[in-house]
Amino acid sequence: MSLFVPEFDESVIVREAEAEVVGRAPTTVRLLADSSATGGALSTQRVTLTSGADGAKPHWHDNSAEMFFLLAGAAEILSGDEIVSAGAGDLVVVPPGRPHAFAAVPGADADLLIVITPGVERFEYFRHLRRVALGEVTPESLLEVQELYDNHFLKSEAWENRRH
Q1: CA 86: distance to chain centroid?
Q2: Residue 1 clears pLDDT 90, i.e. is over it
Q3: Chain centroid to CA 54
Q4: What are the phi and psi torsion angles at 135 (to 5°)?
Q5: pLDDT tens track for 31-62
Q6: What's residue 164's pLDDT?
Q7: What pLDDT shows up at residue 11?
Q8: Strand-pair partners of 153
Q9: Is the pLDDT at 163 greater than 90, yes or no?
Q10: Rounded distance, CA 72 to CA 65, Å?
Q11: 3-state SS assignment for residue 142
């Protein structure tokens, strides 16, 4: 086990009105604090999904754990080959290297606080996703930045078959 001590000396305070918002319904991402703001300790964003909307396709991170805290609503979270149902107040932490994905359950919205630790500069990744959604770049362009954002995509039969 290694000890990571983040290096920053001022508290990070992000007011809701100041957070950059990327996307719009069905998937809205509020960028809260990136790794550079927290001395590498974490990256965090708030993701709001409308009924049944996907938050992220199956992927894994080599060097970071990802925490999902459900603020409101209901979500499905892939962890390995298991689909975890989460409701308001539930917490799921996925270790590095473990495949995961998340979505709102059909018939319910989901509001999630997501934290990646140690942090990775991820804000530009979410801006890239917005460019994909707007058709400015291809979905395949995400494959070119997998290493940069430690976000590696994979196929998951469990995830693809969860609603059949």
Answers
A1: 15
A2: no
A3: 11
A4: 80, 15
A5: 999 999 999 999 999 999 999 999 999 999 99
A6: 72
A7: 96
A8: 59
A9: no
A10: 22
A11: helix
Q: What is the DSSP string of 12-61?
A: ----GGGSEEEEETTEEEEEEE-GGGGTTS-EEEEEEE-TT-EEEEEEE-
The residue type of 19 is A
**For the chain, what's the residue count?**
164
Copy the structure tokens of residue 91: 């917490």
Written as one letter, the residue type at 152 is H
Residue 68 phi, psi (nearest 5): -120, 120
Residue 8 DSSP symbol: -
Check: pTM over 0.90? Answer yes or no.
yes
Residue 22: how many CB atoms within 10 A of its CB?
21
- Number of Cβ within 10 Å of residue 121's Cβ equals 15
Please choose, from the candidates 70, 114, 113, the residue with its C-alpha nearest in 3D space to the C-alpha of residue 90. Answer: 70
Amino acid at 63: N
Alpha-carbon dihedral of residues 79, 83, 89, 91, nearest 10 degrees?
-10
Return the HEC string of 49-95: ECCCCEEEEEEECCCCEEEEEEEEEEEEEEECCEEEEEECCCEEEEC
